[in-house]
Design goal:
The chain has 133 residues and is α/β, with parallel strands linked by helices. Helices cover 32% and strands 9% of the residues. The structure holds 1,3,4-trihydroxy-5-OXO-cyclohexanecarboxylic acid.
Length: 133
Amino acid sequence: MNGPNLNLLGTREPEIYGHETFEEYFNGLKGKFDQELDLYYFQSNHEGAMIDKLHEVGFSYDGILLNAGAYTHTSIGLADAISSIKTPVLEIHISNVHARESFRSHSYLSPKCKGCIVGFGLKGYELGLLSFL
Ligand code: DQA
């Protein structure tokens, strides 16, 4: 699940987030994990829609990879949603949030998540999937 502004991957600040769209990357992942995992992608720029989706899938899916974008640093609502569901959530950040502005170092979500992967580019999503195999 990707949060705000991540629909613009590929064109958004490519020096930080790279040149690939998430759809291209995700199709590659689906091909790679074809035999082992059923993968679904959801993106929203709206905090409430993300909370609704966590509630919807969070009692039946095996795992959720969540890049909440800027809501990572602001959203107690998302943190509470992670605490409220059964499915383990893994926090992903494409960039190394600890090497950027200081406000990006704080996450309301990390304490509620199974683990965090930051700074490995889009590859972080694949690393996250491996942890669920
Ligand atoms: C991000 C890091 C956040 O600080 C930022 O607001 C994003 C993307 C990342 O994947 O590196 O939107 O979550």
